[in-house]
Amino acid sequence: MTLAYAATYVNVIVFMNQVRGRRHRCLGSIEQDVLEELTFGDLLYATLLSARSTRQFYKLAHERATHRYRRRLAIERLSNLNYIHTYGGRLSITARGRAILGSTIGKTRKLLETQPWDHRWRIVVFDIPEKYASLRDRVRKILKKSGFVKLQQSVWIFPHDCEELIQLIKEESRLSKYILYGVLERIENERALKKSFRI
């Protein structure tokens, strides 16, 4: 680590400690996650933003912490229901989880009729090697059956929270490292998507 790099790191830590001191009383659990789970990349990013952009930094960090928090909750719920099994930091789907996947697909699709839209898009992206072509086709079928719309090849979108379904898909297909799940606030051609989802 160079001296300049180390100095930047120290300055960022001092800055974050000052922020923690000023804001500690008004922070909720997710906001505390933001401060506690910031990676060095987050901190370095903060130094690259101007003082006017600090709010943007906190917004991005808050979104990342929220996603980590929701994912952790989804995994805990699935584990408590004995749908997935955790061991040594790894996850695997149980026989019960495989059996329940079909009803989870149905519940996810029903969100389109019963759940008000929160103005966020859920994106699933996968890059599955050809040797797993049959599993890749199964992932596509599950997403389509769940009500997802294909944006591009291997890029699918849905307007409601579906973290648990995606976690089950990842573990059922055993292709977790090839499948990414994310949340977007804005996307091009949104009007056509709203029309497609009737929202």
TrEMBL record:
<dbReference type="Pfam" id="PF20803">
    <property type="entry name" value="PaaX_M"/>
</dbReference>
<feature type="domain" description="Transcriptional repressor PaaX-like central Cas2-like">
    <location>
        <begin position="115"/>
        <end position="181"/>
    </location>
</feature>
<dbReference type="InterPro" id="IPR021127">
    <property type="entry name" value="CRISPR_associated_Cas2"/>
</dbReference>
<keyword id="KW-0540">Nuclease</keyword>
<keyword id="KW-0378">Hydrolase</keyword>
<dbReference type="GO" id="GO:0004521">
    <property type="term" value="F:RNA endonuclease activity"/>
</dbReference>
<dbReference type="GO" id="GO:0043571">
    <property type="term" value="P:maintenance of CRISPR repeat elements"/>
</dbReference>
<protein>
    <recommendedName>
        <fullName>Transcriptional repressor PaaX-like central Cas2-like domain-containing protein</fullName>
    </recommendedName>
</protein>
<keyword id="KW-0051">Antiviral defense</keyword>
<keyword id="KW-0255">Endonuclease</keyword>
<keyword id="KW-0460">Magnesium</keyword>
<keyword id="KW-0479">Metal-binding</keyword>
<dbReference type="InterPro" id="IPR048846">
    <property type="entry name" value="PaaX-like_central"/>
</dbReference>
